Structures are given as structure tokens and as C-alpha cells.
Amino acid sequence: MKLLLCSLAIFASVYSQKLPNYIVPCARNKPDFHQCCIDNGVKAIPYILKGDRAQRIPPLAPLKLPKVAIEANNNFRITLTDLVVSGIDTVTLKDVVFDFDKNLIKVALMMDYLTVVAQYDIDGSLIVPLQGKGPANITSIRPYIEYEVDFSIVQKDGKEYMNVEKDRLQLNSQEAYYQLDNLFGNPQLSAETNKILNENAKDVGKELNGPITQTIRTIVTGLITGYLTRVPLDMIFLKE
Ligand SMILES: *[C@@H]1O[C@H](CO)[C@@H](O)[C@H](O)[C@H]1NC(C)=O
């Protein structure tokens, strides 16, 4: 999937040099490091969801994003504007791994649901032709999200910092609902097309879940940038 625009502007990065007090560091060389990261991550989530101006993290429940644009292939593109994303506060942190041998972060998350309500503009074909603009609701039920980041370690002013190199996100949802009002500017054709999309949710999910996948990716990358890449590594992961 080709990413056209990722609305990261809201997470503008400024060096703050310090973790907020609701994120408790873990000692990298202790045997309980993995569990410590999970436990402290779980405890931090309610604070993270409220947003944190000092870390440039917007409120996440709900989250508002100006724009997400996806071009899955030459036959399909969708642009969403004025997004309101709800359900992020139903998140459960399933796992988090910081692997300093592979320079890899792995995060597994589950949500009860995730809904994106926005204005859509779609053009393309998935099973059926899709064309038009109007209000949209894309909902994923019990999404399970696996997110991986390859990082490097960079030196700034004599201190080590984490730097995001590449990221990958996989989303599997148990059910998905798509509602694209006013397709083709024709209420009856729109209703019929929406019915077909929902009957074939599994087949069209890879493309139609694109905005959800991209939104989550924007959030998690923003959190990593906000909390992890602006604070010296030895203040996030203690060496004891
Ligand atoms: C979006 O769609 C879901 C699933 O159909 C529904 O439960 C939810 O109420 C809708 N949300 C809005 C804001 O329309």
C-alpha cells in the first residue's frame, strides 16, 4: 500500500529531554525487563489517552485528524478528511518488546472497536466500482494490531537517542462495517453498493481498512516520536 499523506504534523517534534512522570522507566539488563515494560505501559495508557501538550501528544479519545489519504493501487484510492476516531480508549496493551539485539520494537494492541467517521472521497473499484464523496463511517470490531519498528541509535550532544527507521503495521479485525453515504450521488445505487461491500467485508477489508490502519500507524508513530526519540535512551531504559 502506497502512503500518500500521513498526518504527522500534529506530532511536531521538539526535544524535551525528559519522560513525563506517568511513564516509569525499566532497567534493560534486569530479568523482568519485558514484564516491566508491559506493566508500566499498561499503567501509562490512561494518561497517554488524555493527551500531553508537553510531549506534543493530542488527546486520543476521541482523536481528530485533518486528513488521511490512501492509494492502495492504480485501481483504488480513498481520501478521508475531518476524521473523528473513536474507540482508542478501549485499547488493551497485549505485549511490548524492546529488543536491543535486533534494534526492534514490537507492540501488540487490541481494541474493542475502532470507528473512523469522516468525509470521504473515493475513486476506484473493489469487487464493484466505487466513486463519490460524502459522509463515511468505517468501523472495525475487535481489531488486533501488531506494530513493529526498526530503530537505530543516534548520537546527539554526546547522548544516545532512538531513531525510527522503518515501521510495519498489521491489523486483523473480527468484523468490519463500512458505510459510504451518497456513492455515485445516487441514494439507491449507494445503498446497494454498501450492501455488497459489507457482504464482502473480508475481501474488501485490505483496502477499505486502509484509513484505519493508517490512522493507528500515525498514532503509534506519534507516541514513539513523542516519548521515545526525544528523550536520551539511558533515561528511558535504565542501566542498573
Ligand atoms: C458507525 O458504524 C458503527 C457500525 O455500524 C455503529 O455502531 C456506530 O454507531 C456508527 N457511528 C456513527 C458515529 O455513526
Outline of the structure:
The chain is an alpha+beta fold.
- Assess the beta-strand content as a share of residues: 35-45%
> Tell me, what's the shape?
elongated
What would the average pLDDT be, to the nearest integer?
90
N- to C-terminal distance: 42 Å
Q: Kindly state the number of beta strands.
A: 12
**CATH top level assignment:** Alpha Beta
Low-confidence stretches: 1-14
Helix content: 25-40%
Please name the CATH topology.
Bactericidal permeability-increasing protein, domain 1
Number of domains: 1
Q: Could you give the order of strands across the largest sheet?
A: 1-3-4-7-8-11
Family: Belongs to the TO family.
Keywords: Biological rhythms, Signal
Pfam families: JHBP
Signal peptide: 1-16
Molecular structure report:
This protein is an alpha+beta fold and 240 residues long. It has one domain: Super Roll (Bactericidal permeability-increasing protein, domain 1). Helices cover 25% and strands 44% of the residues. It contains five helices and twelve strands. The chain has helices spanning 33-49, 187-199, 201-208, 210-228, 233-236; strands spanning 2-5, 26-27, 63-73, 76-86, 92-99, 104-110, 113-126, 128-141, 144-156, 159-172, 175-180, 237-238. A six-stranded antiparallel β-sheet has the order 1-3-4-7-8-11. A four-stranded antiparallel β-sheet has the order 5-6-9-10. A hairpin with a 2-residue loop joins strand 9 and strand 10. The protein is elongated, with a radius of gyration of 19 Å. The model is unreliable at 1-14 (pLDDT under 50). It binds 2-acetamido-2-deoxy-beta-D-glucopyranose. Residues 115, 117, 137, 139, 177 line the site of 2-acetamido-2-deoxy-beta-D-glucopyranose. It holds the Pfam family JHBP. Belongs to the TO family. This is Hemolymph juvenile hormone binding protein (JHBP). InterPro entries: Haemolymph_juvenile_hormone-bd, To_sf. Residues 1-16 form the signal peptide.
